[in-house]
Amino acid sequence: MSGKPLASDTAMILAAGLGKRMRPLTASQPKPLVRVGGKALIDHALEKLENAGVAKAVVNVHYLADALEGHMKVRKTGPAVTISDEREVLLETGGGMVKAAPMLPDPFFCLNSDNIWLDGPSDVFAELSQAWDPERMDALLLLVPHPRALNYRGEGDFHLDPAGKVSRRGKGRVAPFIYTGIQIVSHRLLRDAPEGPFSTNVLWSRAIEEGRLYGISHTGLWFEVGDPGAIKPTEAWLPRA
User: Fold this and answer.
1) CB of 12 closer than 8 Å to CB of 104
2) What does the buried/exposed string (b/e) look like for 48-62 if buried means 16 or more CB atoms within 10 Å of the residue's CB?
3) Which residues does 67 contact at the CB level (< 8 Å), separation at least 6?
4) Which residue in 61, 59, 37, 28 sits closest to 46, CA to CA?
5) Are 92 and 18 spatial neighbours (Cβ–Cβ below 8 Å)?
6) Which Pfam families match (predicted)?
7) What DSSP string describes 89-104?
């Protein structure tokens, strides 16, 4: 890879969800504070951002927001954190980005707070930055092929054409790539967005129609940590990093 700089100095971490699949661990704590490998899930994400040189993070909060916000305040290292408060209403992934947009540069990284991954030859934020082209793209998704998606038992999410354009898995079919929860987002993707809660899928569908949703394949490993049963298998890999 060349020395192309990071596409953004800021990431949004989506941390407002209810974490229903992680019950009973989320009965008394938000999912981003569930510990894997000795640290909270959100700390894995923040450390990856810090190591990549991403200086700032916007974290949205809703479920047990006080606990998550308190955790952010006591952190001594890592990106400078700003809170996007969704206590009144959970806005889902798309609505959460729209609410936080005034705090975010154009473009910005966006990642789920429950992500754990091992980088390949380059960190994922450098990989995304290398491929980012704002003239052609509204968003650039980090995708992972099934063999490198550990704990994942689904049918995949997307296809990639030779140019890197993304299309969805057809109904009843299997797709070769899974969305990792990590992307670069242009403010153009957020234009004319619905009001209130909605999924990012609404915006992605428009970008697919316009030929402006792209993806790259992750060169390392990615772990789905969606339920308590995924924690121990994931922890078994972490010391190998």
Assistant:
1) yes
2) bbeebebebbbbbbb
3) 29, 30, 33
4) 59
5) no
6) NTP_transferase (PF00483)
7) ---HHHHHHHHHGGGS
Tokens matching residue 195: 């009001």
Q: Which domain holds residue 78?
A: 10-240
Q: What is the pLDDT along the chain (241 residues), one digit of tens a residue?
A: 446 899 999 999 999 998 888 898 889 999 999 999 999 999 999 999 999 999 999 999 999 999 999 999 988 888 999 999 999 999 999 999 999 999 999 999 999 998 899 998 889 999 999 999 999 999 999 999 999 999 999 999 999 999 999 999 988 788 999 999 999 999 999 999 999 999 999 999 999 999 999 999 999 999 999 899 999 999 998 865 4
Q: Tell how strand 213-217 and strand 139-145 pair up.
A: parallel
Residue 34 resides in a domain: yes
CATH of the domain at 64: 3.90.550.10
- Contact, 112 vs 48, CB < 8 A? no
- What single-letter amino acid sits at 220? G
Rg of the chain over CA atoms, in angstroms? Answer: 17
12 touches 110 (CB < 8 A): yes
Structure tokens that stand for 25 in this block: 């661990």
Q: Do 208 and 168 form a contact (C-beta atoms < 8 A)?
A: yes
Asked whether residue 2 is assigned to any structural domain, the reply reads no
Q: CB neighbours (10 Å) of residue 152?
A: 16
Q: Where are the alpha helices (H) located in 75-153, listed in sequence order? A: 92-100, 124-131
